[in-house]
Structures are given as C-alpha cells and as structure tokens.
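4.2 Preliminary Data

To establish feasibility before requesting continued support, the project team ran the inverse folding procedure on a target of 77 residues. The structure was first converted into the token representation described in Section 3, and no sequence information of any kind was made available to the design step. The complete token record follows.
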C-alpha cells in the first residue's frame, strides 16, 4: 500500500503533507525532528495514484483547501 498523509507539528502547529509506503516508519522519522501528530491519511494500491494525490495537496489548490476545511475540527489549535 501507498499512503498520503497530513501531520501537524504540536509545537508550532505547522502542517506537512507527504507520501510513503510505510506510514508508521515515516511518522517515526518526522518525530526525530519535532513533535508531529498524524491528522489524516489516505491509502492507495497504486503508487502513481498516491503521488498524484500528494502533488495536488502540495500545490495549494482546491484539494488542499477542501481537505483543511473537512478536517478543521481535527487540527490542533
């Protein structure tokens, strides 16, 4: 499986969108350099589909805005 994910830094509340084939390993790697919380992820069978979705989220377009709106109550304040 391939995953796109959204994590949020617990200290400065910044958001990071990423892609991985091992979600737990990747979160551990992020937490070596800060205190990150997994907010959201999507799973894909196709690596290409996951990379396309990650690209849409990183482009600051409608996909990103829509996702942030959907998750507004889940994001750290």
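Position-by-position output of the design step:
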């Amino acid at each position: 499986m391939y995953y796109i994910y959204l994590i949020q830094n617990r200290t400065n509340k910044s958001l990071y969108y990423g892609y991985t084939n091992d979600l737990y390993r990747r979160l551990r790697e992020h937490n070596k350099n800060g205190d990150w919380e997994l907010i959201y992820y999507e799973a894909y069978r196709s690596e290409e589909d996951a990379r396309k979705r990650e690209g849409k989220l990183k482009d600051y377009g409608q996909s990103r805005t829509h996702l942030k709106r959907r998750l507004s109550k889940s994001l750290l304040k």
